[in-house]
Specification:
By secondary structure, the chain is of the alpha+beta class. The chain contains 13 helices and five strands. Strand 2 and strand 3 form a beta hairpin.
Amino acid sequence: MGLLDLKTIVIIGLMLHSALALVMLQTYFTRKTYPGFRTWTIGQACWVLASFFFYFRDVIVSESVSVILANPLYLLYALLLRNGMARFYGYDRDRLWMTVNVCVAVLCLALIYWFRFGTNDMNMRVIGSSLGMAFIVLCAGIEPILNKVKRYQIQMIISAALMAGGVCLLMRGAASAVHPVYSDLFRQDVWLKFVLVMGMFVNVIQVFGFITLMHSRLEDELLEAQARLQDLANTDALTGLVNRRGITEIATHDLKLARRYGHKVSLIIFDLDHFKAVNDTYGHAMGDEVLAAIGSKCLDAMRDVDTLARWGGEEFAVLMPQTDLVGARQTAERLRIMISAFKPVPGMDIRTTASFGVAELNGGSFEDMVERADSCLYQAKREGRDRVCVTL
């Protein structure tokens, strides 16, 4: 600390804090931000103003003006820092700790003012401001760790820096309590230079951390949006089942595993018989309701490893990994019986049957298996419907 005098550190600190405030302001106006970032930006501006009034006392402003303006701005910075964390992570709804922090700030400010305008005691002012700031800054660092919220990796670095700054402030307060009465704060406060340098370090970590938190959260949102779009692209809107595109992607994965480990894979394609009559008699809205109900009923009858999909129109498909032709045929028969006995719309005597085509992977592609199952399906329809046809 002896390499630089206090005046040089003050000038460097103010320039650095001002630059960081501009970075946050520019980020706020030009990037997508989240709750808490504006609060942090305002807090950064408060820190710059407070430092200006504090370190240029007796040069630009008087000591009294410095005490009146700098201390509430420092405490406001700490409160905004803590509140920004709470808003970003969503635990700001718990008003208890915010109330405690505000009460601590008000109490410390009252003590500072008393020991300036009531009894002039510079040591007590340093103790009051240091302990109040330390308490709030430590809360800002510890609360994101203690609360059950999704934390980002950078948060641990931010919290560590804030806690280091809080401990430094506690040490300054303790040193002031045992030090002889200050007559010149800048010469006699041995911890002031260390607090200044630590403040610059913590401030850099904060601003870097806040911007990183924004980017991390934005990246999470983009990944979630991408996953939702992928899900929408692979999901049938009417039935909520996987659509043709989705089952094709799943089949690509399942067939790779089947070839690698020598497992069987089978495919069932079934089509509801004379479904046009349902639409013509009851309307397309009722037809959609029937399709959704049958899809849900069949899904309940599937194993977890099976994939039921709406293949298109009134056609459905079932991909069955680790299942040979015999097992797939048994499943198709079970579904056929279940569909023929099922009343898809409560209170209405609407029934339908289905024709099934079943094929097993024989070393070819998924498209080849689809073609063979589809041929069996049409054979079942030609033979009178409501039946299962299997290809070897």
